[in-house]
Specification:
It contains seven helices and four strands; from the N terminus they run αααβααββαβα. It has about 260 residues and is of the alpha+beta class. A four-stranded antiparallel sheet has the order 2-3-1-4, sandwiched between helices. β2 and β3 form a beta hairpin.
Length: about 260
């Protein structure tokens, strides 16, 4: 998607330069011809300066306008890219941008024979927190999770909001084992994050699922396997928690 925006920006800039050149060039040439013909009949006062000064001023004005237009277009381009590719609540990549980037990364990985993995994760019992504290507090918690996740992953990785409280991380050149390590680090950092920062709920935890690219995979295949792995991870964690709660405590010995 970023490539499409960059291509469109180049076209706009080229059209702008051509339009301004086509607009200013006849004016400059016409001014020069008119002044040249007038000079043959009427003497040009010395205090008006040379005709080359007028032409140079016109050329500088044209260049200044083009430069200003390029700056404005680049700024507007960055705004458009962010609006089209970023989630407006968390600032992470949105789903459409992730699917486009993941499809391109999958093609590159298959072509180069390199691994690629994704980590899918969501917040445990987030709906309950959202219902108790309100959507503003929930949105703040989601933003904090994205900030923490962006610190854990590499610069080449992409953190995206898949939907609701569910996120996905694209990990090019990363095996499933390396992705599992990153997922573990992410879970540890999220749980250890300061509860007072940006409304992050205390003792928050996440469930993660990892999937590595296989030759015939599409983006949907990776997501489906990671989602299944995440579900199994949550179910195992809950089962372990239930066993811990159900375990009887040792009764203190009676004094005789």
């Amino acid at each position: 998607m970023d490539t499409d925006f960059a291509r469109e920006r180049r076209r706009i800039l080229l059209a702008l330069v051509v339009a301004l050149t086509a607009g200013f060039l006849p004016v400059i040439i016409g001014t020069w011809l008119a002044a040249d013909r007038a000079a043959e009949t009427y003497a040009i006062p010395e205090e008006l300066g040379s005709i080359w000064f007028s032409l140079g001023f016109g050329a500088i004005s044209c260049a200044a306008i083009i430069t200003l237009a390029v700056i404005l277009i680049n700024r507007y381009h960055r705004m458009l890219v962010r609006a089209a590719t970023r989630d407006h609540v968390t600032g992470a990549y949105n789903r459409q941008a992730f699917e486009s980037a993941a499809a391109e990364a999958i093609s590159d990985s298959i072509r180069a024979g390199q691994p690629l993995s994704i980590v899918l994760f969501d917040l445990d019992d987030f709906k309950r927190y959202n219902d108790c504290h309100g959507h503003n507090a929930g949105d703040a918690a989601l933003r904090e999770v994205v900030r923490v996740a962006s610190r854990v992953v590499r610069r080449t990785d992409i953190v995206s909001r898949w939907g609701g409280d569910e996120f996905v991380v694209l990990l090019p050149t990363c095996t499933a084992r390396e992705a599992a390590r990153i997922a573990g680090s992410l879970a540890s950092v999220v749980q250890a994050s300061d509860p007072g920062v940006a409304g992050m709920p205390a003792h928050i935890s996440i469930s993660t699922g990892v999937a590595e690219l296989e030759p015939a995979d599409r983006v949907s295949d990776l997501i489906a396997r990671a989602d299944e792995a995440m579900y199994n991870h949550r179910r195992a964690a809950r089962a372990a928690g239930h066993r811990s709660v159900a375990r009887p405590h040792a009764r203190p010995a009676r004094r005789r």
